[in-house]
Amino acid sequence: MNAPATPSPGTVIDGRYELIEALDDRGLGETWKARDANFKNRFVAVKLLRALDPGATALPEDLARQLKASRALRHPNLLATVNQGVWQARPYMVQDLFTGQSLGAGLDQARDTGQRLPADLLSGLFDRVCAGIEAGHQAAPQPVLHLGLNPGCVLIHRVVGQDFDVRVMDQGIASWADPDPGAPARSARRLRSPAPEQFTPGARPGPATDVFALGALLREMLAAPPPPVSEDHAPRPAGTNLRRDDVPDAVWEVIDRATRPAPDDRFPTVAALRAAARAAWAQPVTPRASAPAPAPVPSDDHDAPPDLFKTAFLPGGAASADPDALYHPPDAMAPRGGAPASDLAVTTARDANTPPVDDDAATSLYPGGAQRPPPAAFLAAMAAAQAPAQPVAPVVRKPTLPPRPAPVVKPPEEPAGGSGRTFLAVAGLVLGMALVAALVLAFYRYTHR
Hints:
This protein is of the alpha+beta class and 449 residues long. The protein folds into two domains: 12-95, 2-Layer Sandwich (Phosphorylase Kinase, domain 1), CATH 3.30.200.20; 101-226 and 242-342 and 355-377, Transferase(Phosphotransferase) domain 1 (Transferase(Phosphotransferase), domain 1, Orthogonal Bundle), CATH 1.10.510. Helix content is 28%, strand content 11%. The strands form two sheets. It has a six-stranded antiparallel beta sheet, covered by helices on one side. A three-stranded antiparallel beta sheet has the order 7-8-9. A hairpin with a 3-residue loop joins strand 1 (12-13) and strand 2. The radius of gyration is 36 Å and the shape is elongated.
């Protein structure tokens, strides 16, 4: 049996995609940045799946059907698939090149530094993930189930001074792709939470399977780290609550229902789960004892760990950037639940080889879909809200001058003596015509003698 093909920089797949470099933190399978030879200056991501039997040149029927349905799906919270094929017995799929960090990497960073990602931030991220999964379930004519959702399959792009852009990837390929090859063994990027029906003989996965995965994902996002172990290794006090104390109890109830073993006991659809989560986040937080976060791991240079409230999901951690310019907290005066944000409609693209529409514009994660103000405007608004009301000074308007009349253009005057020259010209014309008539009459008489 021949070993599967091993790609390398410079490898050209199907005479079109030239591999440039391997990409880390890109969910399931092996992902490469590649140049598309069919378009000028276009770069894509090529994801290689598990090898088929030697000599295979066509995709298996179920995988081909799944990838075809994914290619027809377009949504601002889904990473678009634009092509697929088989290269040296290895299935591959071509996706938009999306720059960002996975949710799993962000959770790993928070745990390594002993910090918690803000609950407001996580609630917004979860809502965007639900929107992408829901769009796949509503696709026609064939719904697209994910069946392998984990923190490593959620990409987050963040621009300094702007908001987040969330993309879910790897819909329906979990059984055809290996786990993230670059993720550590205990990384959140490798977390797998299959629903009971996925390993029960005769059971058929459905939308409730993705509901289970979303509940497990939210539980992983909100899990509080365990309390630090004492020097004498004393046992943990009985009844210690590992749930975060800044999350409403209603949110944990939503998670409990979404992750019930029986599919019929869960939320019937992702839309129902999403609506319940929004309503739960709007509930007040009940004070309770919670396990404290562990102390940050000291570094060699004794620097304090970065504030993840400002630097989460930025490229390279944005260590050299101004942290105050990276992120500002959401408006504390607005309810966390808020009104449902308007979701963009799902569209289909029949020609998947057409370059995808650039929909990488930043999408607000907060109520109403509104963009957050810049730091200076935000601070000014907060100061104005806390300051006592001041009398409003009357508005003094400057007098308005009437519009300047348009200049009157006079027709050019006729030079002096013009009428006399006109008379002479007419008289000359009449005399000329009389002379011609006399000559014609004389010629006629001469010829008829």
